[in-house]
Design brief:
The complex is a heterodimer of chains A (192) and B (144). Chain A is mainly α and 192 residues long. Chain A has 9 helices and no strands. Chain A has a single domain (30-186), classed as Four Helix Bundle (Hemerythrin (Met), subunit A) (Up-down Bundle), CATH 1.20.120. In chain A, helix 5 (73-106) runs antiparallel to helix 7. Chain A is elongated and about 95 Å long. Chain B has one domain (2-143). The chains are: A mainly alpha (192), B mainly alpha (144). Chains A and B meet through helix 2, helix 3, helix 4 and helix 5 of A and helix 7 of B.
C-alpha cells in the first residue's frame, strides 16, 4: 500500500513537473506584443496626440471668436459641435494610449527596463492621475464644450509628455541608436 | 540625401506655383495614384529616380498637411476661398460639390495621424459652412 502511494506520488509529481515545463512562457509570448504595443502607444502620443501645436489648435479659442464674428447662431452651433467631437476624440485617444502604456509598465516593463522602484511608483501614480484627469476632461467637454477646462487640458498634456519621456527611456533599448551603442559597449568589453 | 535634394528641387520648381498649403496639399494629392499610393512626377523622376521622387513628394505632402493643420479656421476659410476662385467654378457649385463629395478626405497623406486628419476634415466642414452662409447673404452685407 505504501509502495502504491509512493509510486502514485512520484507519478503525480512527474506529471506536475511536465505540466510546469510545458506551460506557455508568458514573458516570451506576450513580451514582444507588449513591447510593440507600448512602442506604438508612445509614438502615437508623442507624434500624433501631444504635440503642442495640435493641442493648441484643437482647443484654440480664437477660432470660436472668428465664428462668432460671422454672426450666425447656426454656424456657432455647428462649430461647437464639431470642436466638441474632435476634443472628445483627442481625450479618448490619449486615454486609450495611456492605458496601453500603463499596461506595459505594470506588466512586462520590469523585465526589460531598469527603472528604479521609486520611478516605477511615481510613474504608476502619474498614470492614475492622468487617467482620472482624462475622465474629468471628458465630462467637462461633453457637458460644457471644448473650452470648458483649458487648465486641465494643459496639465494633462504636460504630465502625459513627462510620462512619455520616462516611458521612452524604458523603451530606449528598442531604438537602433541604443542597439548600436550596446554593440559598441560589447565590442569594447570584448577587447579589454 | 537625394530625397532631401529632390524635395528641395520640388519646392523650388513646382511648389513655388502653389503658395498656400491648401493648394499644395491638393496638387500633391493629385500626383498620387489612388490605387497604389505612389506619387508620380516625370520631371523629378528623370532628374533623380522614381523612388526618390516619390519619397520627396510624400515628404512635401506631409509638410503641406502639417502646415494646413496648424492654420487657424480663418486662414483655412481664406485659402478655401482663394482656391475656389482659382478653379473658375461658380461658388455655389464649388461649395455643393465639396460638401457632397468631401474631396479633402482623399487629399491627406497616407500616414497622417487620424486625429489631425479628423481635425482638418472638421475644419473644412465648418469653413465650407461659412462660405455657404456668405453665398446666401444679400450683396450689401457681403460688401460691408
Amino acid at each position: 500500500m505504501i509502495q502504491l502511494i509512493l509510486f502514485l506520488s512520484i507519478g503525480v509529481a512527474l506529471l506536475v513537473s511536465v505540466g510546469f515545463l510545458m506551460r506557455p512562457h508568458r514573458r516570451a509570448e506576450g513580451g514582444s506584443t507588449a513591447l510593440v504595443q507600448a512602442r506604438q502607444a508612445l509614438s502615437t502620443l508623442q507624434g500624433g496626440l501631444l504635440p503642442a501645436e495640435l493641442v493648441a489648435r484643437v482647443f484654440d479659442r480664437t477660432d470660436l471668436d472668428y465664428v462668432e464674428s460671422q454672426g450666425s447662431p447656426e454656424l456657432r452651433k455647428l462649430f461647437l459641435d464639431e470642436r466638441t467631437r474632435v476634443a472628445l476624440l483627442w481625450v479618448s485617444r490619449v486615454r486609450e494610449q495611456l492605458l496601453s502604456l500603463r499596461e506595459f509598465h505594470a506588466g512586462s516593463a520590469r523585465f526589460y527596463a531598469q527603472l528604479n522602484p521609486l520611478t516605477e511608483l511615481s510613474l504608476l501614480f502619474d498614470f492614475s492621475r492622468l487617467l482620472l484627469a482624462c475622465r474629468i476632461l471628458q465630462v467637462f467637454v461633453y457637458v460644457r464644450g471644448p473650452y470648458a477646462a483649458p487648465q486641465i487640458v494643459g496639465a494633462t498634456a504636460a504630465v502625459a509628455a513627462k510620462v512619455c519621456s520616462v516611458s521612452q527611456e524604458s523603451l530606449a533599448f528598442l531604438t537602433p541608436a541604443y542597439a548600436a551603442a550596446g554593440a559598441n559597449r560589447a565590442a569594447r568589453t570584448a577587447r579589454f | 540625401m537625394d530625397v532631401l535634394q529632390a524635395a528641395d528641387d520640388l519646392r523650388r520648381r513646382s511648389l513655388v506655383n502653389y503658395p498656400r498649403p491648401l493648394d499644395r496639399l491638393i496638387y500633391l494629392a493629385s500626383m498620387r495614384d489612388y490605387n497604389t499610393g505612389v506619387y508620380y512626377h516625370d520631371g523629378l523622376a528623370s532628374r533623380y529616380s522614381p523612388e526618390v521622387a516619390c519619397e520627396a513628394m510624400a515628404d512635401c505632402h506631409k509638410e503641406a498637411f502639417r502646415q494646413l493643420v496648424a492654420n487657424s479656421l480663418e486662414e483655412v476659410v481664406e485659402q478655401l476661398e482663394a482656391y475656389m476662385a482659382s478653379t473658375h467654378t461658380s461658388p455655389g457649385d464649388f461649395v455643393a460639390a465639396w460638401k457632397g463629395l468631401e474631396p479633402y478626405r482623399v487629399a491627406v497623406p497616407v500616414e497622417s495621424d487620424p486625429l489631425a486628419a479628423q481635425f482638418l476634415f472638421s475644419t473644412f466642414k465648418v469653413a465650407l459652412a461659412i462660405l455657404e452662409s456668405r453665398l446666401h447673404l444679400p450683396p450689401a452685407a457681403l460688401s460691408a
